[in-house]
Amino acid sequence: MERLQKVIAHAGIASRRKAEELILQGVVTVNGEVVKTLGVKVTPKDRIEVNGVPIEKEEPVYYVLHKPVGVLSSSGDDRGRTTVVDLIEGEKARLFPVGRLDYDTSGLIILTNDGDFSHILMHPSHEVEKTYVAKVEGIPNRHKIKQLEEGIELEDGVTSKAKAKLRSVDKKNKTAMVELIIHEGRNRQVRRMFEAIGHRVKRLKRVGYSFLILDGLASGEYRRLRPYEVKKLKQLAVTKFS
Asked: Are 71 and 103 in contact (CB under 8 A)?
């Protein structure tokens, strides 16, 4: 027997956290009965429906995508805007992104239908490193780079320690390229960190997620994660949880 939210996540309906929200909203039934309690266990013989639609377990699939600017990091949009899922052509599995990138941020994002996989990567105790390159207004000095590394006071608390380095400077246009590696996932965190030290971000790109890099993928391009990559990501998460 398995927990209901885990079965829903495995079916590719949503991440486990979202599956829990669906249960609490009362849109999940088991054998015709509405279930609104978390932790209920089910068997493969039970008939499970979400919003009246029976679920079927899908084979897990995993993609890495180079998200362009102007694309939403979601599985759908009620305003008809393009999402990261729309860019994966010919895939019948119900995909969703692992985490998110801002609308005006480009770069590496993972998509999957494996709710457990998404859950462990997004769990706060995992602390997966994410590497960003930002083009900022002005040229940060050593003191400001050190501030980024030691933690920045934001309205939702001090950021964790990070890694930062100045990649290049353009003295003529008074801009700089700065690499920042963080393991948190707060809303617009990188942009807010730079704004806090007085350097507004003009362009932002995520170039790495743990050991994954874009590896030649052009904007809008994607590929399936290789089995050893999926295995390594899962092992990293298990190591963090243990």
From this structure: yes
